[in-house]
Amino acid sequence: MNIGIKPSTLIAIAVGLSAATLSMSSIAADLDVALIIKDHRFEPSEIKVPANQRVRLSVHNQDKSAEEFESKSLKREKVIPAGAKAAILIGPLKPGRYEFFGEFHEATARGVVVAE
Q: Most exposed residue of 21, 101, 104, 115, measured as fewest CB within 10 angstroms of its CB?
């Protein structure tokens, strides 16, 4: 049975699948930075990352209450339940300072990402 697929179409499909695989492996290669919420504070409160690179913030909320990671400059917000972990992807970032805060404890839960 001939289904009528041209060899050039098969090559295009193979190239597309290869590109998708490479793209997925580059996502897996993101820089992973640990960030802890403890006593309504972010630890560390300053995170240095390379400019122009995607970064995965692996946030672990060790408090007994939820906290919301929020940043207007990073355009991210995410509620992290008590005792839970969450991943927040940021970047690639231009060189500069990007503030973030915990919306539920804004007076103490503050930090900054510095892209260099």
A: 21
Residues with Cβ within 8 Å of residue 97, at least 6 apart in sequence: 112, 113, 114, 115
CA dist., res. 81 & res. 90, Å (int): 20
Residue 51 has, within 13 A of its CA and on its CB side, a CA count of: 7
Q: Which CATH class is domain 30-115?
A: mainly beta
Residue 111 forms beta bridges with which residues? 100
In angstroms, the CA 99 to CA 114 distance is 9
Amino acid at 43: E
- Each residue's pLDDT tens digit, 18-36: 555 444 444 554 799 999 9
Contacts of 40 (CB under 8 A, 6+ apart): 63, 67, 102, 105, 108, 109
What SS3 class is residue 35? strand
pLDDT tens-place string over residues 66-111? 999 999 999 999 999 999 999 999 999 999 999 999 999 999 999 9
